[in-house]
Amino acid sequence: MPRPKIALIGGGNIGGVLAEQIAYRELGDPVIFDVVEGLPQGKALDMAEGAPLAGSDSRISGTNDYADIAGAELVIITAGLARKPGMSRDDLLSTNLKIMTQVAAGVRDNAPDAYVIVVSNPLDAMVYTFKEISGFPKNRVVGMAGVLDSTRFRSFVAWELGVSVEDVTALVLGGHGDTMVPLVRYCTVAGIPVAKLLSQEKIDAIVERTKGAGGEVVALLKTGSAFVSPALSAIEMAESILRDKKRVLACACLLEGEYGVDGLYVGVPCILGAGGVERVIEVEMDAEERKLFDASVEHVKTLIDKIQL
Ligand code: TXD
Questions:
Q1: Ligand 1 in contact with 79 (CB < 6 A)?
Q2: How many angstroms does the Cα of residue 193 sit away from the middle of ligand 1?
């Protein structure tokens, strides 16, 4: 059985980690596409030369030509500028909108049957833009943000309690920005509600740190944003699709009535399998959670309203 071709549109910080993880885990044969001459080819060659040490037979390639992504079963898009200190994700909108417009046409014309995971920021607007321009069905276009935000929340809880990260589950929903909604009631440690183990003050601090986690890394790095944890988050989604794992993950999905939202991409729990977004799961929210979620949706809407396609 041949390995699936996985096209990585954007061979920068996240794209590089994606290619390495995909190749060395033999999830597929990564093709890195970028507009910078030599960048994708150089990164691919370097990883390919290291493959024997990872025991990987994946074929890794790089290109500046969209024709080389033909036949890709999965596309992961990281093309676009990343934040610098002092910038919000929304500040990237105008530049990355132009880039996503080009990318969506390139993928539509060269890999029309692919499943697509969008990573570029501002995430909720970029995944919406890709969907609109490509015309792909909603089950084949999903955004990566909630897995990263939920993973960060899990890490902060595990560190505070001194427990394994493997035993912490969490759900962070809504838009990928300051209005994201960590659903604390659904966070458990081996099934134990986190509120039974941590004070409200500690929980509130973890909620705030999660919302600001992206900016915290940007402030430290100064030259860009987080790239390993985002890449691993996209890999989690890719693996669930490629191996039909039916994982329940927080992803940016196109809502058409679910949660009372119609026509927007918003982070919600969904089942990811061979059919892509196979089902959106509607979780019960109390009044406070619903108010926060609705506010987050409203922020996504204001962002989408700025897009003139
Ligand atoms: O949770 C999330 N979704 C976010 C996403 C988490 C972290 C980073 N997030 C966003 O991903 C970030 O704000 C950026 O918008 C993207 C990619 O971040 P990365 O750190 O990988 O940025 P780089 O290193 O600048 O890489 C971007 C690459 C770079 O090599 C450019 O040459 C390329 O994108 N690029 C293009 N590729 C293809 N086509 C076009 N038009 C293009 N323009 C730039």
A1: yes
A2: 36
- Identify the structural domains of the chain with CATH numbers, from first to last: 5-143 (3.40.50.720), 146-305 (3.90.110.10)
Q: Are 267 and 280 in contact (CB under 8 A)?
A: no
133-168 burial, b if ≥16 CB within 10 A, otherwise e?
Answer: bbebeebbbbbbbbbbbbbbbbbbbbebeeeeeeeb
Pairing assessment for the beta strands 141-143 and 115-118 based on DSSP bridges: parallel
Q: Which atom of ligand 1 is nearest to the CA of 99?
A: 41
**Calpha distance 288→106 (Å, rounded):** 42
Residues whose CB falls within 8 Å of the CB of residue 294, separated by 6 or more in sequence, listed in order: none
Ligand 1 nearest atom to the CA of residue 148, by list position: 1
* Cβ 121 under 6 angstroms from ligand 1: yes
Helix (H) or strand (E) holding 42: helix 39-54
pLDDT in tens, 246-269: 999 999 999 999 999 999 999 999
CA atoms within 13 A on the CB side of 45: 6
pLDDT at 15 over 90: yes
With helix as H, strand as E and coil as C, how does 144-162 read?
CCHHHHHHHHHHHHHHHHC
Q: Whose CA is nearest to atom 17 of ligand 1?
A: 78
Reading the block at residue 274, the tokens are 């061979």
